[in-house]
Amino acid sequence: MATGNQIRTIPLFSGLAEDQVQELATIVVEKPYRRGQTIFREGDEGKGFYVVGSGRIKIYKLSTDGKEQILHIFGPGEPFAEVPVFAGQCYPANAEALEDSRLLFFPRAGFIELIRRHPSLALNMLAILSRRLRQLAGLVEDLSLKEVPARLAAYLLYSADQAQAMEIELDISKGHLASLLGATPETLSRTLAKMTKTGLIVSQGPRIVLRDKTALQELAVGIKRL
């Protein structure tokens, strides 16, 4: 069982009173997962939602021909699979541990009962879901309207902004990055090579230095092409 201190560090539960935190601690279950282990599959009953305690989790869908499209990668403190908690439906995608991970599982029945008694929990959850909806809308737009160089430029700019630096260290494999961007590994490698050749970035393994942020921004929004 997770402790109150662990729960307080989760942004989803920020601002909750001490008694609410302690009630959450009574229903949460800690679950370890090995790298590559499936957490749930698309269509499984949505019995609850998860928060990443440590490690990273990929959410993905498979096409009819088996091609994987990563929808999101979650890290420590981030919740996922929240929709079934409210909708009472099946999980809409697959979840797998990218590395050894520790998850906090909140059963649907217990969490819904807490929401009935503490509506502020629902407000926090709705804020998270709204942000997730915007992210998914952006993903759909990128995959349907933008070419791979624009998607990659947007990803690099976002990662640099998060790190507050012009240099980033990719924390996922290039194969997973390609899937996240809706590209093949070969296309991703060619795009990285072109960005390097034209002076937009310096790429050395997982380390990428952004050399021309303005040009990357123009590429990301479609003002220029690679």
Short description:
The protein has 226 residues and is of the alpha+beta class. The chain has nine helices and eleven strands.
Topology at a glance:
Elements: H1 4-8, H2 18-27, E1 29-33, E2 38-40, E3 48-54, E4 57-62, E5 68-74, E6 79-80, H3 83-87, E7 94-97, E8 101-107, H4 108-117, H5 120-145, H6 148-163, E9 167-169, H7 174-180, H8 185-197, E10 201-204, E11 207-210, H9 213-221
Antiparallel strand pairs: 1-8, 2-7, 3-6, 3-8, 4-5, 4-7, 9-11, 10-11
Helix pairs in contact: 6-9, 7-8
Which series of helices and strands comes N to C?
A: HHEEEEEEHEEHHHEHHEEH
Spatial gap, N to C terminus: 51 Å
Tell the overall outline: elongated
Total number of beta strands = 11
Sheet/helix structural class = alpha+beta
The level of helicity is 40-55%
Counting H and I runs of at least 4 residues, what is the number of helices? 9
Query: How would you state the average pLDDT, rounded?
Result: 86
Q: Looking at this structure, what is the CATH superfamily of the largest domain?
A: Jelly Rolls
The number of distinct structural domains comes to: 2
Radius of gyration: 19 Å
Q: Percent of residues in beta strands?
A: 15-25%
The CATH class designation of the largest domain is: Mainly Beta
Query: Which spans have pLDDT < 50 for at least 5 consecutive residues?
Result: none
* CATH fold-level name of the largest domain: Jelly Rolls
CATH architecture field of the largest domain: Sandwich
- List the strand order in the largest sheet: 1-8-3-6
For the sheet with most strands, the description reads: 4 strands, antiparallel
